[in-house]
UniProtKB/TrEMBL annotation:
PROSITE patterns: ABC_TRANSPORTER_1, ABC_TRANSPORTER_2. Keywords: ATP-binding, Nucleotide-binding, Transport. It comes from the Bacteria. This is ABC-2 type transport system ATP-binding protein.
Amino acid sequence: MSVLSLQAISKSYGPIKALNEVSFNVPQGSVFGILGPNGSGKTTLLSIILDILRQDAGSFSWFGQPGSPETRKQIGALLETPNLYHYLSAVDNLQITQAISGRGVPADIDKVIDIVGLTARKKSKFSTYSLGMKQRLAIGAALLGSPQVLVFDEPTNGLDPVGIAEIRELIKNLAKQGKTIIMASHLLDEVEKVCTHVAILKKGTLLTAGQVDEVLANEDIAEVSSSQPDQLRAALEHFPGYTSIKQDGKNIQLYFPVGTAKLEDINRFCFEKGVALNLLVLKKKSLEAKFFELTNE
Ligand SMILES: Nc1ncnc2c1ncn2[C@@H]1O[C@H](COP(=O)(O)OP(=O)(O)OP(=O)(O)O)[C@@H](O)[C@H]1O
């Protein structure tokens, strides 16, 4: 079942087309990454689905219904650094957030602080927190009322590797609890580590969307090497079924349609041509390579 469904969403700011007929579905329980270079329309898209901005054309539905204040209550969001008070503790800050938003009950506050790993520091002032802790508290504010869906815009922006790893673990744990998470990011490596699904935007146009594995798995790459690179290259050019061949130093990469690279066949073929291999591995294209290929960045 789709938690969110977008149909041909378009949005312009004067002459700038920020989104151009974007359509995709977010399955329940997925961690859905919206990837794109700067200015590709990610924040605009999140703002539209959260009713902060209005689209010019197209429609979207949450849980099969048009957006409404009721459905909005099932969605927790962190779009930009929220208004957390520097001189107040985690507990006091969440009490204020809760009083303003009316989400959940006071007993939720300790649970949320536990989920985001701040129990030991829950009475310390916000100003004494590391950036990662501040971001975890901001995520905690989005968790009040236990919404089924969480929307995060660049949740690891500005964090150091430790802070990034903590947020990654937190997102994975939220997903294990059955939450659907929609997150915009330009950190491709992070998306690859955390997300089950991805949509890639470029200048407001959707390039591809689907399961991370499927988006990546449209090609098999067999990487091959030998101490006789020239003979190897000459032999492999006659190997049947590959779509392209590339050379990276001594290593040769043969690209095949997904599921068709057979390492045994390559090994036998080279052996019969008198070339002994010292490397033969099947690789998948990384999301980063795929992203750069799609966006020509
Ligand atoms: N309020 C606005 N007025 C005019 N143009 C805008 C406005 N907001 C965004 N834009 C433009 O719309 C396009 C999409 O912007 P958006 O912020 O949605 O992209 P993004 O992918 O979130 O980028 P970033 O990663 O830099 O945050 C960009 O060209 C941006 O300059």
